[in-house]
Design brief:
- This protein is an all-alpha fold.
- It is built from 16 helices and two strands.
- The chain has four domains: 138 residues, no CATH class; 126 residues, no CATH class; 39 residues, no CATH class; 93 residues.
- The structure holds zinc ion (ZN).
- The site of zinc ion has 7 residues, from loops.
Amino acid sequence: MNFIVAFFYPFDDDKFPWDSSYVSVIFLALVSCIVGLFSDFRERALHGLAISSVLWLLARKGPTFVLFVLGFFNIMNKSAFIVSYIGNRGFQYDDSNLFSVLNDRSLLYHFAMLLCCLIGFFYRSYFYSVLLMDLVHREETLYNVIRSVTRNGRSIVLTAMFASILIYLFAIIIFLFFQEQCIKEIEDLSNDGEPIVENHCETLILAIITTFNEGLRNGGGIGDYLIPLSQHHDQFFYRVIFDLLFYFGIIIIVLNLIFGVIIDTFADLRNEKQKKDDIIRNTCFICGLERRQFDNRSISFETHIQYEHNMWHYLYFIVHLRTKDATEYTGPESFVSSLTKQNILSWFPRHQAMSLQLSPQNEDKMDNQAMYQKYCEMASAFSQLMEQLEDFKIRVDEQRRRQQRLSIIKSSIRHTPRQYREPSSSERRATVQSEPSHSRLNSRSSSNQNGFRRQQSLISQDSIDSGDQ
Ligand SMILES: [Zn+2]
């Protein structure tokens, strides 16, 4: 609509219909779009069909007729939208007070848009141009441009007030000292462009207006507007100081302060939007778990938000509960229904997901089993070691006892008589010489021999016992 207004206003329907060649081209486009409806690019074909049919109507009937048709559709569309909007939000309004509807800003906004449609339809077509501002309402980035001014509006207004005070002071100085330097030669449009000379600082209010208007708009401040002075003029140095003060004080510092506030606010808003987008992209809407918590897991974040915690499934479930008869609820349904009626969201999984809970538990289980097995192995090994140690202890005791006995035997052997050993030749001789003592010695050796035999049998008995053990 706005393209038609911009290109053809004021409308001259005598130029229509267009040449048949244009019309035939548009008609071809129309037919190809209709054919495209049956292809894969149905959506694009639909857009093309809408545009080409408008163009075709324009070429055949002229802009007045097309704007009438489009404006009528626009009004119907907007009215239907407002009716459905109130219908949707109806439960939020206070029934007893009709004016509570007016507290809804966006509803007022849509009413204003409808009003623009009506004025454009019944009065002048260029009022449709206001409808383009709807783009700002729809697109958040553009909306942030407006919010960057309105959000820190207080500091911007205060800075602007400070600038106004300074400019007011400068205007008084101009009015008092540099009044004759405001003279300008202007073409008088009411008198065939005859040049006239005017002083724009005749009164203080005129001086203030001129300082605001010319001082802020000129890149070098008010000095650009005032007549340049000769270096021999009395006020030359005062003018230099005055112009510089105005330039640094107003143009450089105060104006940039205002710009800085606006730019900073815009940057903040952009950061907030980025953060919000980041949260929307990387956090599950239902459980609030972040994307990185699904790293190295059996399930990916996309699968999680698609199948496990699909927010639309939760919405469908709530709608299902509202539409279902309460007497037919299952156990979980009646539980969730009772919570949703009280606006309690505790039935939502917070920071937990079944897929994340199951996998670590399994891992823990596996770990526990492996550890238990290891423990069992270690315990059996330990008991074996203890048995061996016990055995070793017994053997060591036995060994010690045997050694004790052996030492006893040895000591007893050490005390046995020499004759009992194999007699040497000299001994034999001695035996022959001392014949009478032989019988006495013989009886002693026999008694010793008996003792030795007894000890020998004990040792053999011990060795048998130890062998058994
Ligand atoms: Zn989740």
